[in-house]
Amino acid sequence: MATQQAATSPSSDSPAPSPETPGMVWLIGSGPGAADLLTVRAARLLAQADIVLHDALVTEEILALCPQAVQVSVGKRSGQRSTAQPVINQKLVEAAQQYRRVVRLKGGDPMLFGRADEEMRALEANHIPYEIVPGITAALAAASAAKRPLTRRGIARSVSLFTSSTGVDEPDEVRMPNGDTLVQYMGGREATATAQRLLALGHAPDTPVVVVENCSRPDQHIYHLQLAGLEAGLQACSGPVLVMIGPALADRD
């Protein structure tokens, strides 16, 4: 199997970017939102970028780290009008053909529910070099914010990360994953359906649930409830929501 070599950053004396000699692209995870949760590498690359194509959930605090760059919003928000993925792919390709240092700034981690596959395919199809810079994904940030480990010795030794969100032309996802702890991304609108499905599968009504809204941001909210209570929905939540379910999330005695 062929392996991709690590790409090197273009120097100032490199040929001007063009379709034949494109610039370099970094797919960077911005983490849950707080700027000081970025990796050192991500912050350095943002400070060097010529153009930054960023998600809707990327905070102004993080965008302030790249004032020298052209900033292009290619926002995608679940359940809201947003830029179609093929359009984002094309914008990314066009940026690499015009700029030496291109950052595609994604919420959380690019490789988990970040549509990295589609963007990597577009870059590879156009022979554009790229690297991935990981970010803190929402599940880990939310568990830390709530001070609730996702695993606990003797109680939970597996974690399943899932989303019920699907593409426009795809059927709704109704299967529930297996795992001692379940973590649902973009789970706000799906809260009632998720609770009903788990209760129907035999999960106890008093199974602990922790909901984190706007994780790591000034308007962060943490809710502690039970699976039976989750069935009523999360009408109080309007920001990005992550739902954690399982016995590992119970209060410590």
TrEMBL record:
<dbReference type="GO" id="GO:0032259">
    <property type="term" value="P:methylation"/>
</dbReference>
<dbReference type="GO" id="GO:0004851">
    <property type="term" value="F:uroporphyrin-III C-methyltransferase activity"/>
</dbReference>
<keyword id="KW-0489">Methyltransferase</keyword>
<dbReference type="InterPro" id="IPR000878">
    <property type="entry name" value="4pyrrol_Mease"/>
</dbReference>
<keyword id="KW-0627">Porphyrin biosynthesis</keyword>
<protein>
    <recommendedName>
        <fullName>uroporphyrinogen-III C-methyltransferase</fullName>
        <ecNumber>2.1.1.107</ecNumber>
    </recommendedName>
</protein>
<dbReference type="InterPro" id="IPR014777">
    <property type="entry name" value="4pyrrole_Mease_sub1"/>
</dbReference>
<feature type="region of interest" description="Disordered">
    <location>
        <begin position="1"/>
        <end position="23"/>
    </location>
</feature>
<dbReference type="InterPro" id="IPR035996">
    <property type="entry name" value="4pyrrol_Methylase_sf"/>
</dbReference>
<dbReference type="InterPro" id="IPR014776">
    <property type="entry name" value="4pyrrole_Mease_sub2"/>
</dbReference>
<dbReference type="InterPro" id="IPR003043">
    <property type="entry name" value="Uropor_MeTrfase_CS"/>
</dbReference>
<dbReference type="InterPro" id="IPR006366">
    <property type="entry name" value="CobA/CysG_C"/>
</dbReference>
<dbReference type="Pfam" id="PF00590">
    <property type="entry name" value="TP_methylase"/>
</dbReference>
<comment type="pathway">
    <text>Porphyrin-containing compound metabolism; siroheme biosynthesis; precorrin-2 from uroporphyrinogen III: step 1/1.</text>
</comment>
<feature type="domain" description="Tetrapyrrole methylase">
    <location>
        <begin position="24"/>
        <end position="228"/>
    </location>
</feature>
<feature type="compositionally biased region" description="Low complexity">
    <location>
        <begin position="1"/>
        <end position="15"/>
    </location>
</feature>
<keyword id="KW-0949">S-adenosyl-L-methionine</keyword>
<comment type="similarity">
    <text>Belongs to the precorrin methyltransferase family.</text>
</comment>
<dbReference type="InterPro" id="IPR050161">
    <property type="entry name" value="Siro_Cobalamin_biosynth"/>
</dbReference>
<dbReference type="GO" id="GO:0019354">
    <property type="term" value="P:siroheme biosynthetic process"/>
</dbReference>
<keyword id="KW-0808">Transferase</keyword>
